[in-house]
Amino acid sequence: MDLDYQLFLPLLLVRYSIETLPFLIRYPQAGKILEYLDLDYRLIQRQAKEELQLRKQSIGSPLQRSGLFESGTAEDRARIVLTELTRLHEELDRPRQKQRISFLSQVLNNPLYRSEVSLLISILTLRCRNPILDIQAIVCDLRILKDPETLITSLIANHPTEYYTTIESLLDSDHLGSSRTILSRLCKLAVHRAWDIRQQLLERRMFPNLAIELTIEHCHDEINFMNRILRGQPKWLIESDPVTKSSRTSILEFIFSSLNDELQSPTANNSTIHRLLRILSGMLGLMNLILSAEQLEISLQVLEMRPEPSIIDIKVCLILMCATQLFKYGKARIERVLTALLKCRNSPQVLLLTIYFQTQQLLLIDEFASNVLSMTVVIPREGFRHLETLFTTGFSDEQLASCALSLDQSRPDNTSSPFMPAKSAFNSTSSNGLTISSRPGSNTTSSNLRSSSYICVTHLLKRDIFHRSHMDVRDWILHRILDSTTLPLDVNMVPLLTAYAEAVSRAEYISRIPFNSILAYFENPAEDVTPPKVLLALYMLLNNEVCHSHLNNDTRARSVEYPDSIFQHIQIRKILLYVQNHQGGTAFESFQPMFLKLVNAQFPELFDVTTLLMEEGAASQQITASGDTLGVTSGKAGLGSSTEEETSFKDHHIKAIAQHLDNPDAAVKAYRLFQRLPQMRRQSMSREIIQVSLPSLLDPSSSSTVLEAFKNTWDQLNSIMPHELWAMTINACRSNIESSAIKSGGDNYSYEWLVQDPLLLFNVDLRVFRTPVVFRLFIQILGAVMVASRHYFRTMFEGHQIGHQSQDYGEIHLGTAISLQDIILIQMLLEICQRRTSRTKLAANVKSVATVSGALEATITTAESSEMDVDKAVEPYDEAEGDVIKEIRVVTFNFLHQQFIDNKNLAKLIHFQGYPLDLIPIMVKGVDSIHICIDFLPELLLRPPVNAPGMTGRGGGGGVKGGMLSDEFELQVFALRFAAQLCERFPLPNTLQMATEVILPRLRALAIGTGFSSVVLESATVLAKAFPTLREDIVGILRETSGSHDKAALIATLKAIDKELADHILATAQDAMSGFLCDIYLVNTQFLFQVPNKTASTHLWAHRSAMAKNPVDQGVSLSAFVDLLKFLCYGQVECLNNPGDFAISGWPSFKSGQVEDAQCWHPLDQSAHLSAKPVTWQKLLDAVNVCQVDALRTHCKVAIMAEARISKTNVYKANALRAHCKVVIKDTVGIGKSSANDK
Question: For bias kind Polar residues, which ranges apply (predicted)?
């Protein structure tokens, strides 16, 4: 392009002389420019300023200036232009003056003067040393004129350094009306700047027509530009400055010309075709273009080209965008095109669109087009009617099924799928449960195609397409499962497996994965878990869930459950841990909810809360050689992997475990080394470890460190193979039982046997029940087996109910049977908590429920007729079982606590049946959830007498036979004793009301009915201790119901009641004073009140950290000690010689400042069994000497001397424990309602 020197003449002639550039003389304007350059511009600037002043005075008119511009000299014209520019700028600074300026600027607006004005503006800005206006201000002012592009172009041409600044100001201006024309002229002024200007237009999303014009005329990259301009949100193309018809026509002509060239070419470029079709589809969807017949013909010819996977998606998108026009032009040809596209391998686009049209998911079709075009677009809805008919009825079931199964058979690198947007999969789940995107980070071609195949097959399975086509997808499903080796797995695999399991249950031609095929893949369950194993386990769980759900509504279901034995074989717990913990739990994040739900529904015993918490705590401290602390370690890591090393471990370390009694340290080391072995080797050696450890660890001389090491090993194995471990542990603990007592058909109990008959768990060595560490494991197994047994019986019951209309055995019978089994198991645990436990008692309990849990006669007979004297065997441990039995009870009661929380009705049934009376106090104290029994306590107390053999109690007099309670009162006495113990532990307002309204009447009735039984009297004592306010009522009932032969028992009971009340009050006082000194001195000082049997005075013993000598031995009274406390705490020096001024509260209100008369001990009461001595100064001095309170000694001596001179002793009333310790000391009378006068 030749340079137009005419535009640059002012700049060239200012910088160069005519002699330097002689060729410029041929331009006609050169002479005029030289004439203007010779003017005195200082004089012109001064004259312009003067003229502006005159104009402000309204001297002169625009017509005069216009005529002067035509007839005046060069100096006049220059002055007029400079004046007009200055006046224009001043007027623009005033608001709302644009119309007036346009009218006044006759010189600048006159097209006749435009050429000469443009020269003068350029010369003025070049020659004036101190210009009135800068370049950018002039450009901004000139834009208000009519057609300013000539003036601005000439100005910028002579000031090239202002080019970019001018472009920026034009794009940033608020008035864009004239900017487009000016920018176009400026681009022609500097063609090499067109790329930069177009880039700024794209970034600012403005002037699309100018961008297209620059592309066609200067940049010549129409394909790349249009692909770029249509990306993302191209609505700016049609909003503020829409693309004009001429621009659209130019682009379309280029597109179809290029497509025609590709059709004529012997080797078509698929990449070019893809980009051209993308531009065409985007413009059709964005601008609603109408194509001509010639253009439609070219489009159809392109669609009919041999289908290539790389352009199938864009072809489908073009059909969607102009469906109405294409169907009118050639419907049959479009149908043939879609059929050919459907048959194309590894191209799921047409099949997915068929699914979307069948399920009316039109928004997903819009999403498909948007993904293909990389822009947000809405497909014209008028074409949906034709497309829906074609996609829903145009393809046969066989075509759809064959297309779905052929997907992902090969994976060419040049394929792509538009169904995988970049957003997270969790934000684009369709209404039918199919996820139309892969997880972030896995958006590869193969994974996208695989995910699309999962979606298609899932939909076709739900609509029974494969069944109607007589096609079995079993092998296809199995191949996809085994091929899923990369993580994270596709989120559409779960819907696929669910649809497959459902289809198997109802479709004749769809078969399930054979049991043997699955078992072959899990040939060695000790191997590491892999993603295919997880999917196989998930499929089996889904299959069983479908079978279970169809029991109640479809008796013709074809699917068959996989047996529980296969889940034990594959070790479902190990797979569960792998799903939860692999890669920090993120690898199977989308699978976890479904997997956990299914495992919990079918194997609830694996979700014991206590066990899970213990495992979680142990996992953080678990040491494995591979560094894997998640319980599933690599088979190649750890201590050695060779057969020789494993044999060495067995020979040396297992021998050390067997000899743990002789060398505990070696056994502990062996256990720890076993825990560090790879997971595969631990599983293979687990049976040997358990058998060599049990029952030898039941020996009382076993080291606690060895037992703890064994428990850690057991917990580690329990996290991966619980079912097998439970059976191995029980079998090992019963190794000394006669083998004839075992069921026929095998030497060991299997896990299935334990689930079907949990009572078999108790057929173990009795030392298990006196070895706390092993007993904890037994309780853990018992809890899991109880849960599994309930689930097993309920599942069997639901399966039995199908097809049986009689319903002879209903839900209530099932609940009763399960409850009876649980009651017997808990009763056996309670027997264990007694001091002595014999196998005879356990066998009797087993026999009582033999009809419920199975035929156990052989076991019972063997246990009863065993030559081994079990009682003698355990007798040495019974003699020294103090701490052991306490720990056993703690474990048992914690277990019962959880059972009662899970099933409140179980607690009710247990107590309605009753248990040994000597267990009631420890049961109430040890089970934290025992408070739930308060709800049914009135019902338990008011139950009519029934015969309930098996409970023993102590008694005498009427209602007693041979030292035993009669059967009709036995359960009633149990209820009374249990109620009294509950009241003692929970002295609440509601229990006090219950005691008044229910318990006391039952106490009266049972005292009469049992003939003053010792058990009833003990219950009365406990009740009085719980509620001291009921003492008089209880004593009255006992007096009324006692006979002459019960006098001794009555007296003993009354003394026991008084003693319990006194101990209770003294204990309360002790707690109060101990807390008092703790608050003052911040020391843990304990005070115990001791009451000598043959004295009426109460002495105080203080902890040696507070006192140097024992006050009891020195005779320090309680009253004197109160005075010492007052002096130590408050600095008050008083002598409490009137002990009637204070009392000690026996209730929690002792610390709250509120003391009731009936709840206090009053030492001055003559009828009280305890009283306080008056304090004299001499007694106080003795106490000072004993307790070494030197600061008070001098004061006491002075007071004693003063007493000798003064006849009347001053009496000071003391209040020892004031507001901040909240112990009230005041004068009241008696325990109960009696009172006494002050002395």
Answer: 430-441
Query: For residue 599, what are the CA distances in angstroms to 489, 631, 648, 758, 1118?
Result: 19, 18, 38, 21, 67
Q: List the one residue out of 395, 408, 321, 323 whose CA is nearest residue 358.
A: 395
Calculate the alpha carbon distances from 1044 to 1004, 1016, 1057 in Å.
17, 17, 20
Mean pLDDT on 18-29: 84
The count of other CB atoms within 10 Å of the CB of residue 100 is 11
- Listed in sequence order, the residues at least 6 apart from 304 whose beta carbon sits closer than 8 Å to its beta carbon are 333, 336, 337
Which pLDDT tens digit goes with each residue over 795-832? Answer: 888 776 665 555 566 778 888 889 999 999 999 999 99
Between CA 8 and CA 24 the distance in angstroms is 10
Query: Which residues are within 8 A (CB) of 446 and not within 5 positions of it... i.e. 6 or more apart?
Result: 408, 411
- Confidence at residue 1066, expressed as pLDDT on a 0 to 100 scale: 55
Whole-prediction pTM: 0.64
Grouping H, G, I as helix, E, B as strand and the rest as coil, residue 493 is helix
- Radius of gyration for the chain, computed over Cα atoms and rounded to the nearest angstrom: 51
For residue 695, say if its preceding peptide bond is cis, omega within 30 degrees of 0. yes
Give how far Cα 1109 sits from Cα of 487, 640, 1102, 1183, Å: 76, 67, 9, 10
Whether the CB-CB separation of 254 and 279 falls below 8 Å is answered with no
Tokens for 364, please give them: 């997903």
What is the maximum span of the chain, computed from C-alpha positions, in angstroms?
A: 156
- Find all residues with CB under 8 Å of 593, minimum gap 6, and list them: none
Cα distance between residue 140 and residue 138, in whole Å: 5
For residues 697 and 772, the answer to whether their CB atoms sit within 8 Å is no
Alpha-carbon distance values, 1102 to 1067, 1070, 1086, 1113 (Å):
14, 10, 7, 11
The residue to which tokens 């007592």 are assigned: 741
Closest CA to 934 of 926, 919, 945, 924: 924
The b-or-e profile of 528-564 (16+ CB within 10 A means b, else e) is: ebbbbbbbbbbbbbbbbbbbeebbeeeeebbbeebeb
| Measured CA distances, 1234 to 759, 828, 1029, 1059, 1163 (Å) | 59, 50, 13, 19, 13
Which pairs count as long-range contacts for 867-873, CB under 8 Å and 24+ apart, including other chains? 868/736, 870/766, 870/838, 870/839, 870/840, 871/836, 871/838, 873/766
What is the β-pairing status of strands 964-965 and 960-961? antiparallel
Per residue in 1185-1238, pLDDT tens? Answer: 777 677 677 778 877 877 765 533 333 333 333 333 333 233 322 323 333 333
SS3 1090: strand
CA distance 642 to 648: 10
CA distances from 907 to 188, 620, 852, 903, 924 (A): 96, 36, 20, 7, 12
Among residues 784, 786, 813, 782, which one has the least CA distance to residue 797? 813
Helix (H, G, I), strand (E, B) or coil at 590: coil
Helix axis angle for 904-913 and 811-832, nearest 10°, is: 60
Contacts of 1209 (CB under 8 A, 6+ apart): 1137, 1203
Q: CA-CA distance, 327 to 338, in Å (whole number)?
A: 12
Tokens matching residue 873 = 């065997």
Give pLDDT tens digits for 596-625: 899 888 888 888 766 666 666 555 554 343
Alpha carbons 143 and 1070: distance in angstroms, whole number: 99
Contacts of 312 (CB under 8 A, 6+ apart): 341, 344, 347, 349, 350
Query: Cα–Cα–Cα angle for 68, 70, 73, nearest 5°?
Result: 70
Long-range contact pairs involving 484-488 (C-beta distance under 8 Å, separation at least 24): 484/531, 484/532, 484/535, 485/530, 485/531, 485/532, 486/447, 486/531, 487/531, 487/582, 487/583, 487/587, 487/588, 488/439, 488/442, 488/586, 488/587, 488/588, 488/589, 488/590
